[in-house]
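[SOLVED] Need 3D model of a two-part complex

Original post:
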Amino acid sequence: MSPTRPALLGLLMLAATLAGCAKDPAKYDAPLFALGSGFSAKSVCSCIFVTGRDEAFCRDQARVSPDVARFKVDHDQKLVTSKVLGGWKQQARYVDDQLGCVMQ
Amino acid sequence: MLLALLLLLPALACPDDRSPDGPWPDDHAAVARDHADRVAALDAVFFPDVDWDDPDRAGVRTDGAVVIHRGRVVYERYRDPWGPGDRHLTWSVSKTVANTLTGIAVHEGRLSIDDSVCAHVQAPDAACAIRVVDLLEMSSGLDWKETYEHDPPTTSSVLAMLYGQGRDDMAAFVLGHPLRDAPGSTWMYSSGDTNALSAVVGAVMVPAHGERFPWAVLFDRLGMTTSTFERDGVGTYVGSSYWYASARDMGRLGQLWLQDGCWAGQRLLPEGWVHDSTRVTRGARERPLGSAPGDPVQGRLVWLNQPVPEQGHMHPAWPAAPPDTFAALGHWGQSIIVVPEHDLVVVRIADQRDDSFDRDGSLAAAIALAESL
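Solution:
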């Protein structure tokens, strides 16, 4: 997949979301992409550090449609950072094997 | 007087039970050898051929299945890379953990189900009409929208709670919603109600048992070694969604419920708690919002296999199983199903993205195996 495709998809989704909001105003203040990167960061953090699966497995586990979230895993800090289109940064950090991950 | 008390004791005590002292007694290899046809039937329903690389993730995608009969593992199988010691996300199976921790708090005398939530946590005045029992029964009446990936995400209350503005203090976020209906009058599936409940339970249990009270009062007592229970930003356990455990440890929760809340001769849940939790709730009988015929119906954070004639739902969700069967069910196919009549606990961990799994068929196969043992 070319690097521009996720961006195009994202812009299309943003346009669709804005059009949708005109009819059905969102009740909550988090933008769609912040929810997307939040879901990615939290899900991938728990998938890797709690359930012990590898990055490829967790990428597929947390894949939503459209697939625009990208994550980075810092194994030293036990921290997962996710972004959508380079923005809407969200992070989740692993605490320990009882308390798992918490969004930052 | 003393004699009367002594006579009362046996009624309150626990009968002999099948709580494992250490790892589960494991007969599954011998059962697979001696009852090959019955085990093949379980394999067929849990693990039919599936293309794990399918981009649409279609088909029956079971990660693991464990059947416990009379306190012994009689069937166990995983798909690569999952195994017996691996923690798996249980999603809404966590809600039955939230119920269990509530029951323990009640048994310890720290909480009454008739308490207002405002007796234990800070909440807007309007929310003070909500009682603990209303949260157990998903009957808070709060104006909530429980939608996931198939609806516009930005209007979903549950996504805002877990990943958006509600994530730091989920209970405060939930209880800040306006009331849609009088508390206790309706049933509507709400992960928000469960996390408000979790905050109430935390408020009474942390001072007594410390921040990690779920291990002190439940997980360690049951001999679980794989429990992870994640919290929000202020330390409330996310009872709606974030309990992780191995399939074998999930089976321990089922065994506790099968044994009426008793474990190794000790009563963890109040007398009558399992009974009261496995009745159709008033809201589900009188005014369920968003429930369809053929769906399982909710007791108190437990799914039931009972018809609801008041709503014209005449058939149970799983006809192959007896009507007193009950279950903890989670997103993407997670389940702990208890079949008291057959002394069975059936656990499934999965990545189930469509409705192709035959849950009724899996219970039929598990019951058929139990009947042959």
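Edit: The longest strand of chain A covers residues 87-94.
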